[in-house]
Amino acid sequence: MDMTPDPAPPAQPLPEPRRLGPLARLAPEPMKVVLNWGRRYSLWVFNFGLACCAIEFIAASMSRHDFIRLGVIPFAPGPRQADLMIVSGTVTDKMAPAVKRLYEQMPEPKYVISFGACSNCGGPYWDSYSVTKGVDQIIPVDVYVPGCPPRPEALLQGILKLQEKIARESTGERYAPAKPSVQALTSGLVTPPAPAPGSGSGSGDTK
């Protein structure tokens, strides 16, 4: 009988857990409703304006449309004070590392709105050698606003969609670290030696 142990499964990288405070993760359901309510109506915006869509963002923040009435505060001092990044305009391959670096500096929980065709998929320049085919190639996007350029009313609708998403989200499920599988926990470990053929069970029987 072949007693050769089965080969160990290939190692799988463990997922990197996201960090969130214990109050948001372990709070009871009524408290989570209050946290989501406060989060959705106090979104500090980090505007990453790259092209003509940024002009429409500025129009949406002015007195005619006034998205501050929706609980969105424009022009955060920097990424570390921002909850929402709005990428408006053409993302080039040269600018993509800066977009990703500033997104990583934002504290959790953070959200992204892709504003305009260029930010969504490259727009009229999708086949250019120097244009990133959508900002979602480098950072996760929560809401897409189509148009070239979109009207300010489209951005207001995108903000409302994001607020609806925040209102029904569970921060515990979103930021809880994923449980690794048994294969991931046992992969790469030393395999115990197989018992020698004919060895006793160790019950203490003597003849």
From TrEMBL:
Membrane-protein topology: Peripheral membrane protein
Annotated localization: Cell membrane
Location (main, coarse): membrane
Comp. bias regions, Pro residues: 1-15
Ranges where the NADH:ubiquinone oxidoreductase-like 20kDa subunit domain occurs: 52-162
Pfam families the UniProt entry points to: Oxidored_q6
Quaternary structure annotation from Swiss-Prot or TrEMBL: NDH-1 is composed of 14 different subunits. Subunits NuoB, C, D, E, F, and G constitute the peripheral sector of the complex.
Name of this chain's protein: NADH-quinone oxidoreductase subunit B
Lineage of producing organism: Bacteria, Bacillati, Actinomycetota, Actinomycetes, Kitasatosporales
